[in-house]
Write a structure and sequence with these properties.
326 residues, alpha+beta, Pnp Oxidase, Chain A, Aminopeptidase, seven-stranded mixed beta sheet, 15 strands, 25% helix
Length: 326
């Protein structure tokens, strides 16, 4: 495993208190959006669901559950199911929507691990989507079959010692209006660049030059480093860039949209980076900033970072700070 693979700051949430949240308040997203947020968990799930049968639970009229063996299809960034037009599960999905899907396990030991998703199902009428799903299916769907897309609000996995599990074993979709964190993808590059420009531009006059992060190529940064973003309702509000160097675990860049300063987002990004450093086996993190970016120096000092070096550049110094982790 190389250093880049050791970093995984994705959109995940601890189990504490999560099970009490109402499904109705949580949005549902496509399999592709889930895979962008949690690629390792999605890959694990695709492997488990690719070994049919899986078991689909739907909600009857009156609230009682029922369970059906199914053969899920993952194609074109979507999770699909074909079924007979008279299927009770289709009626449940049309009328109430909510479902749970669990992979089948081959024995009482749970060999290979378990994967579970829940969310809402939607009938798909588009011929193009049907063609994609049919081509990806492990069988030939009959003409009369109807197609549903299963969108996700939660995913989780479990294992019993015979399989390597993802680092993040549970994911929950963000509620509308709430902030979530996820791994950056290439299409985020222009949005990240715009955010970094807005965050650092006010410093140009003070330091007398363009800050280094404003000159980075964020397509390349996202490709070659670990980059995570914080977003709310589809808008990126913060970004953090992590890497591993000869000096240790580096927080290479942290930037917050100016309108979100003072909301605790910068600290939240730093805390997530610190947690990731611990997970990756490091007992400290370090960062550096321009000596004239006094607000940053004050924040870092308040939350436990200690200056350990000043390195002269052409006409200024970079201040290096390190935080020891519990």
């Amino acid at each position: 495993m190389d250093d880049h693979d050791r970093l995984d700051l994705g959109a995940h949430e601890g189990a504490a208190g999560a099970s009490d949240r109402s499904h109705d308040a949580r949005r549902v997203i496509t399999w592709g959006e889930f895979a962008n947020a949690e690629p390792e968990l999605a890959a694990f799930g695709a492997g488990r669901l690719g070994l049919p049968p899986a078991y689909l639970a739907t909600v009857r009229h009156g609230g009682a559950p029922r369970v059906h063996p199914v053969t899920p299809i993952i194609a074109a960034n979507a999770l699909f199911l074909f079924m007979e037009p008279t299927s009770p599960k289709g009626g449940d999905l049309r009328k109430r929507g909510w479902y749970a899907l669990h992979n089948g396990v081959p024995d009482v030991d749970g060999s290979g691990g378990e994967f579970f998703v829940t969310g809402k199902g939607f009938a798909v009428e588009e011929a193009a989507a049907r063609a994609v799903a049919a081509q990806a299916a492990s069988y030939e769907p009959a003409e009369q079959y109807v197609l549903f897309e299963l969108k996700l609000s939660e995913a989780r996995c479990n294992g019993y010692g015979d399989v390597t599990l993802p680092v993040h074993r549970r994911w929950l979709a963000a509620r509308p209006g709430s902030r979530s964190f996820r791994r950056a993808v290439p299409s985020d590059a222009p949005h990240v660049a715009d955010l970094v420009d807005a965050a650092y531009r006010p410093y140009i006059e003070r330091i007398g030059t363009i800050p280094g992060p404003m000159t980075d190529d964020y397509e390349e940064v996202i490709r070659n480093h670990h980059v995570a973003v914080a977003e709310r309702d589809g808008t990126i509000e913060g970004v953090i860039v992590l890497s591993v160097t000869d000096e240790g675990f580096l927080i290479d860049n942290v930037a917050v949209r100016p309108s979100r300063r003072g909301t605790g987002l910068g600290r939240a990004l730093l805390e997530r980076a610190e947690a990731e450093a611990l997970r990756a086996g490091f007992d400290s993190v370090y960062l550096y900033t321009h000596e004239k970016m006094t607000e940053n120096l004050a924040l870092y000092s308040r939350i436990g970072y200690v200056e350990y070096d000043r390195r002269p550049q052409e006409d200024f110094s970079l201040v290096f700070m390190r935080k020891r982790l519990a």
